[in-house]
């Protein structure tokens, strides 16, 4: 379902931050549902065409395409009881960064 979205994201010169936030939210929701159905095994135990491996690669690619605009949207709109949101720490930015 997300392959056409990834293709469009890669071809886009400017991505809409709100749309990126929505896509990323839906993407992670679907990815988590898949992992509940097919638990993630170490890569060396998976067949090259395993659904979970394909899903992880697609999720990683689309997540990375959408992250900067999605984060900008969330930081611009979100707030805590103490004021504006602060940028997340380094661990957040490592999510899906390893191949």
Give a short overview.
With 99 residues, this protein is mainly α.
Number of folding domains? Answer: 1
Strand content: under 5%
Secondary-structure element sequence? Answer: HHHEEH
Helix run count: 4
Could you list the spans in which at least 5 consecutive residues all have pLDDT below 50? none
Description:
By secondary structure, the chain is mainly alpha-helical. It has one domain. Strands 1-2 form a two-stranded antiparallel ribbon. Strand 1 and strand 2 form a beta hairpin.
Key attributes of the depicted protein:
99 residues; mainly alpha; two-stranded antiparallel ribbon
List the helices and strands and how they pair.
Blueprint: H1 3-11, H2 17-37, H3 51-77, E1 79-80, E2 83-84, H4 90-93
Antiparallel strand pairs: 1-2
Helix pairs in contact: 1-3, 2-3
